[in-house]
Structure formats: structure tokens, C-alpha cells
């Protein structure tokens, strides 16, 4: 809920704001509740997604979640918000 609100607020204040879904960007292993990010694959996904948003002043994306190779939603483990916040 906070991503749509933040995105709307930024746009209302005149920023060219974009949105990404962490579930489409962040690739993890399958350890639910303690998932580890595959940094290389996540960086590849982020690079592609950001090409479409290169004109934005700011991009908003939720943190602490990702998907594994089976498409299941995972939550990151300890320190996960250090990477996604």
C-alpha cells in the first residue's frame, strides 16, 4: 500500500516518478522468511526495467520481498532491508 501512496504523492508534487514491483525484479532462493537475493540476476532485471524509467526523477519499489525460481513470493532474511530499502 505504501508504494502506490508514495508514487502518487511524488507525482502530485511534480516529480517524474516511476514504479517497479520487487516481485518482478528481486530474484531469491526459496528460503521463505530468510531468502537470499541472487544479486547478479536481480541486477540484470533491474537494469532492463530501469531502461524504461530512465526519464524519471525517482523510482519507488517495495522492499523485503522477492520471488524464487518457481515464482513463489519470498521474504528476505536478516539484513534484507539493507539491500532493498
CATH class: Alpha Beta
Tell me, briefly, the overall form.
Answer: globular
Please report which band the strand proportion falls in: under 5%, 5-15%, 15-25%, 25-35%, 35-45% or over 45%.
5-15%
In total, how many beta strands?
Answer: 4
CATH topology: Carbamate kinase
Distance between the termini: 15 Å
According to CATH, the homologous superfamily is: Acetylglutamate kinase-like
Discrete helix count? 4
User: Looking across the biggest beta sheet, what order are the strands in?
Assistant: 1-2
Question: Could you state the order of secondary-structure elements as H and E?
Answer: HEHHEEEH
Largest sheet: 2 strands, parallel
Mean pLDDT: 93
Find the structural class using helix and strand composition: alpha+beta
CATH arch. level architecture: 3-Layer(aba) Sandwich
The low-confidence parts are: none
Output the radius of gyration. Answer: 13 Å
Tally of domains: 1
Amino acid at each position: 500500500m505504501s508504494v502506490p501512496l508514495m508514487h502518487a504523492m511524488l507525482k502530485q508534487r511534480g516529480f517524474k516518478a516511476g514504479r517497479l514491483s520487487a516481485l518482478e525484479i528481486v530474484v531469491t532462493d526459496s528460503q521463505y522468511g530468510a531468502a537470499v537475493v541472487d544479486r547478479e540476476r536481480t541486477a540484470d532485471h533491474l537494469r532492463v526495467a530501469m531502461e524504461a524509467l530512465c526519464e524519471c526523477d525517482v523510482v519507488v519499489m517495495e522492499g523485503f520481498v522477492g520471488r524464487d525460481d518457481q515464482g513463489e513470493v519470498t521474504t528476505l532474511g536478516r539484513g534484507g532491508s539493507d539491500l532493498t530499502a
